[in-house]
Design goal:
Layout (H helix, E strand, L loop, with lengths): L4 H25 L7 H4 L2 H11 L25 H5 L1
Helix pairs in contact: 1-3
Length: 84
């Protein structure tokens, strides 16, 4: 897959949005309710995956041709809803 400068900017913007969303989620969880360390370090990976590599449709999460079994680590599980 070839990424144009515009596509790279889109993925960078998606990563920024994902970080801000993750921080909002952490604040909403309240005192001691969030651990973001491992997840924040993977934001760019998830942005690249969901921004151009994986087959998925956020409006149709049960789409039969979607990518599955991508995430296996519970410590990073919060990234998936942030990405989609």
């Amino acid at each position: 897959m070839i990424y144009t400068p515009d596509r790279i900017q889109d993925i960078e913007a998606m990563a920024k949005y994902m970080r801000l969303t993750a921080l909002d989620m952490a604040l909403a969880a309240g005192k001691g309710g969030a651990h973001l360390g491992g997840g924040l370090s993977c934001i760019e990976i998830f942005a690249a995956l969901y921004g151009g590599v994986l087959r998925f449709d956020a409006k149709n999460p049960c789409w039969k041709d979607r990518e599955t079994d991508i995430l296996e680590m519970w410590s990073l599980a919060w990234n998936t809803p942030v990405a989609v």
